[in-house]
Amino acid sequence: MRTRVGIIGAGPSGLLLSHLLHLSGIESVVLETRDRDYVEARQRAGVVEHGVAQILRRSGVGDRMDREGITHHGIELRFDGRSHRVDFSDLCGRTVEIWAQTEIVKDLTARRLADGGRILFGARATAIEGIETDRPRVRFTHGGEEQLLECDYVAACDGFHGIGRRSLPEDVVRTFDRLYPFSWLGVLADVPPSCEELVYARHERGFALHSMRSEEVSRLYLQVPNGTDPDDWSQERVWEELSERMAVPGWELRRGPLTSKSLTPMRSFVTEPMSHGRLYFAGDSAHIVPPTGAKGLNLALNDVALLAEALRAWYTRGETGALEDYSATALRRVWRAEHFSYWMTTLLHASGDAFEHRLQLSHLEYLASSRAASTQLAENYTGIPRP
Ligand code: FAD
Ligand code: DHB
């Protein structure tokens, strides 16, 4: 099998890349190890940055987000039994869309297939060869048979556990890693949200986040120790703990049946460079952020918008500059998001250390009293515009 761009992974980054390339007349094939139902149901992120919403709209896959998603103009920080609203529209003139990753994946998959795109579900990439030549190849298994995808370029959009990173020569790679001593227990609940905007709460018992999927479905998270078994958390215990951690006078948390429970470990991770020879990385295959800043999905989609532009410059005008600069350009945004996610995480999670606890409260009070401090949160959360 032969194509121009071989894409490994049909998560948000692989699908959007394939779609953007198609709009520029560039053919691609997407290999995805899982089946379509699994990929479309995987519960993950829920906040879309201002600029990423624009990328989806401009490429014709933003209609349902604009009809069914919810535009948010700010978030609420809670600490010490009080609350502070960060007003994005006022502070930086931008907003975010509350629109789930599952829905983005469903729309992109449907659009690719309607446009005649080739997504091979159940196709597991096993090796990437010849990345230092101009004829790279991806070996993969599909329907029990070993097959070969020959291409001009390979895009590793295969997430943190994919094979892309392992295909780089050891002497060209540098990785940066930070593990945190806590995880998030995430739940979906069939109950209308108890707040109009997302609530990020810092409490001595641990962090809590109230998000939402729609007017009827709430998404909530609790900081828990690493290795926690979600089965140890009954519905009653989840609601009690959320109520306690998010409590402010005059506010009540609505309760309802939980429809899913899962654990997400927290990690920061970056691989440099994000390209080598004819192999390019996008999304979680190259970097991971702890989810506190809502950046993982947004970084992944920003990466592929950049990569698609660079490939278009090459295929339509023969220009190589943007492809050569891809790694350096993408990494600038990645490191900004890494810092913001690390900062939000260490600001809001309980470590059990009394000194850190005082520093967190001091910083939160500063955020609540300083327009300059709140503005830097607003600028980073809504996504710094691309130059
Ligand atoms: P993925 O979505 O991981 O997609 C990679 C795809 O590649 C997968 O479909 C995988 O099956 C496929 N693949 C892997 N190996 C192969 C192979 N060898 N051959 C073929 N296909 C392969 N971000 C937030 O902002 N907020 C959150 O609340 C949040 N929660 C998260 C919870 C979890 C459990 C995880 C894992 C991530 C979460 N994230 C969150 C991060 C966000 O979802 C990711 O940043 C985003 O999914 C990255 O998209 P991606 O396309 O790069 O990778
Ligand atoms: C959601 C996840 C996040 O990590 C976050 O910071 C905000 C919202 C969510 O799943 O809705």
From TrEMBL:
Pfam families: FAD_binding_3. Keywords: FAD, Flavoprotein. The lineage of its organism: Bacteria, Bacillati, Actinomycetota, Actinomycetes, Streptosporangiales. The keyword Zinc does not apply. Residues 2-340 form the FAD-binding domain. InterPro entries: FAD-bd, FAD/NAD-bd_sf, RIFMO-like. This is 4-hydroxybenzoate 3-monooxygenase.
